[in-house]
Write a structure and sequence with these properties.
The protein is of the alpha+beta class. The chain has 13 helices and 15 strands. It folds into three domains: 118 residues, no CATH class; 128 residues, Phosphorylase Kinase, domain 1 (2-Layer Sandwich), CATH 3.30.200; 206 residues, Orthogonal Bundle (Transferase(Phosphotransferase), domain 1), CATH 1.10.510.
């Protein structure tokens, strides 16, 4: 039987599967009927190695591979076993209100006859989770006077991680007029905490600081139709003594997905994105980035197709403002952390850094090293603008050529080979985009020039249609 079919037959859906740092636990999250539950399979040396939980943990964490009876022949078979067991526990779990409280985890085991058994308990780690978030205030997440409405986590269904999105999950409200509206949840829900916590707590604290900074940045930004709007709701959970503890926020989402999804879908259908739409989207991406640098006086740092949401009116909206990680495929070569920059008149002068190893990125286990953006922007904002012009150029090339790049395979921007296909687009489009991707930043156009170019192209196409 395919992964999760038993669960799907009950009106529920499989979600994430993950393990703990000690390699003794496997978690699985499932959602359905307006509920979301976390299930746990634990390694128990007191039980025979052939018991279901032991086999699942052994397979997931690649333990005792040589003993075929204590594992599964493949991870696919393991997933089938996980979701089959979850399906057997699902109806009984969701039928009892106390099992749906925040912090509850359902432990799954098997009895001597091999039948699935389950027990729901409040996990002790939930107290650590609440302690992490205890001191977060609304003013940490939004400027005074611009604080969104607050919803309790019990009113939110957090579904699953959105592929390629940093800490983002699809979500919806359980009740009310907005029930059918899709949202993106960002923050630290209990599932995320279980995934990232360690004894030192460094990663979870770094994640918390990133979320607070990002939320406040977005909530305080001057509005623009092509830039992410402020969060619509803050999400809270009731802590000890009824204290409201803020754990995340909800931002509006679109069922149309991201620009990368559109490119992938068109390629699968062997069709071309409409030329007027391509020009409009290049114009809107340019407008969003110009607003970022000229009005907001900041930078985005990760311009790529995956960070432009296609809204319900098929306009592009720049999202994901963590300002934390870069994508090698679209990163400007000079911004790879090996160079410093200074202005000499109207020209930027770059020098290779030859000093001791340096780092200004918290070592959170994901990325460390030297991030040039916060260093360059205060003293040389033109350098960050032209670096993002390069990223914009790469993104426009991916749109116009419908390139669907495997970003995980790219370690440095120079690894990307830019090739133009003959798809009938005006040659001037490729010429402008190539200028954006010039190796020498001083030869790249300004965002003002790029916006003007695409504005004129949109007008030309509208006039001729």
């Amino acid at each position: 039987m395919a992964d999760g079919n038993d669960l799907l037959a009950l009106g529920a859906a499989p979600g994430s599967i993950w393990g703990d740092e000690a390699e003794t636990i496997v978690y699985a999250q499932a959602s359905g009927n307006g509920q979301s539950l976390i299930f746990r399979f634990s390694l128990n040396p007191a039980n025979p190695p052939q018991t279901l939980s032991n086999r699942i943990v052994n397979c997931f964490h690649v333990i005792d591979e040589d003993d075929i009876e204590s594992t599964f022949p493949s991870r696919s078979e393991m997933r089938k076993a996980i979701w089959s067991a979850v399906a057997k526990a699902w109806a009984g779990c969701v039928g009892d209100e106390k099992n749906l409280k925040p912090g509850v985890i359902v432990d799954i085991n098997t009895n001597d006859a091999g039948d699935v058994t389950w027990k729901a308990t409040q996990d002790p780690l939930f107290e650590q989770y609440l302690d992490l978030l205890h001191d977060v205030q609304p003013t940490d997440l939004a400027p005074e006077g611009n604080i969104p409405s607050v919803v309790d986590i019990s009113e939110v269904v957090i579904l699953d991680k959105i592929s390629g999105r940093s800490g983002a999950k699809s979500a919806r409200l359980r009740t009310g007029e907005a029930d059918s509206s899709p949202f993106v949840f960002k923050g630290i829900d209990f599932q995320t905490f279980l995934q990232v916590h360690d004894e030192e707590g460094e990663y979870s604290r770094a994640m918390l600081e990133t979320w607070k900074r990002t939320s406040k940045l977005v909530a305080g930004m001057t509005s623009h139709p092509n830039v992410q709007p402020p969060p619509k709701y803050l999400v809270a959970v009731s802590g000890p003594g009824g204290k409201m503890i803020y754990i995340g926020h909800l931002s509006t989402f679109s069922t149309k997905g991201y620009l990368s999804d559109v490119i992938e879908a068109e390629n699968e259908g062997e069709t071309q994105i409409d030329r007027q739409k391509k020009a409009k989207w290049c114009h809107q991406m340019s407008l969003a980035l110009a607003h970022t640098h000229y009005v907001l006086k900041t930078y985005h740092m990760d311009i790529r197709p995956q960070n432009f949401l296609v809204d319900e009116q098929e306009n592009l909206v720049l999202v994901d403002w963590e300002q934390k990680q870069v994508t090698a495929a679209t990163l400007a070569p000079e911004a790879d952390g090996t160079r410093d920059v200074k202005e000499n008149g109207s020209k930027l002068v770059y020098t290779e850094y030859a000093g001791p190893e340096r780092s200004n990125i918290p070592d959170d286990g994901v990325q460390n090293g030297w991030n040039v953006f916060p260093e360059w922007h205060p003293s040389c904002p033109l350098a960050t603008e032209l670096a993002e012009v390069f990223s914009l150029g790469r993104t426009m090339w991916m749109l116009l050529s419908q390139e669907d790049i495997d970003f995980d395979e790219i370690e440095h921007p120079d690894d990307v080979e830019v090739v133009w296909s003959d798809n009938g687009d005006p040659a001037s489009w490729a010429k402008m985009v190539d200028r954006c991707m010039e190796k020498d930043p001083n030869k790249r156009p300004s965002l003002t020039e790029i916006v003007k170019f695409w504005e004129e192209e949109v007008v030309k196409l509208d006039t001729s249609s």
